[in-house]
Amino acid sequence: MPKLLIFPHSHFCEKARWALDYKGIGHDAVAIVPGLHLMTVRKIAAESSVPVLVNDDGTVIQGSSAIIDQLDANYPDRQLSPATEEERQACAAIEKTMDVQLGVNIRRILYSSLLDYPAFIRKCFTHSMPSHKKLAYRFLAPKLHKAIYQIYVISPEKVAKAHHEFEIAMDIMAKRIEQKPYLVGDKFSRADLSVAAMLSLLTQPPEHPFPWGDIPDPEAQAFCERYREHSVSLWVNEIYRQYR
């Protein structure tokens, strides 16, 4: 059975996991300890990031978009990539842009306040892990939280910029879905899956495999509440309801 190396809460990992589930491909989602994952992943892949798909034949695919490429090539049922070149290019453009404008920015925004709540961060990273991995995380947590801030948050100025870029991206997506239910073409595609996965941290749909619970930080709560009735948030919840 293929293995998918993940962080349980990660929206990029959710993108790959959703694609596998959508295609009905059995797999073992393996949560790995952040920090220690650097050694684990670099043994088998070029970079240290997750998700990483390890196939039964030993081939390794790294990155959510590359995983979808490989799944569509090897498992033609329930294609996520459109049939026409024009629509494939449209999907690729949305995926590439919104992985950053939505996915990277929302990660920066939420980490900027939620890092002050170590119990919640511990839940995000260690959900479903065995006890020895949870113990390893507790040992690493202080240095890990500092590293997360330095890598993903960086500064208040970067967070303010992330808020601005996120709002613009939400407005762009709102215009795309104004007259139709899908971002590209007339059926569900990887563009819809990708954008919905990137925003799963915002809307926390019940179909998502991670048990979110209450967000402990008032600032993060206010951010999510601000977009709760946004047309794109409502669209995300409907896409999850129908396809996840």
TrEMBL record:
One Pfam family, short name: GST_C
CDD domains, per database record: GST_C_family, GST_N_family
GST N-terminal domain boundaries: 1-79
Xref: SUPFAM superfamilies: GST C-terminal domain-like, Thioredoxin-like
Name used for this protein in its record: GST N-terminal domain-containing protein
Organism encoding this protein: Zhongshania borealis
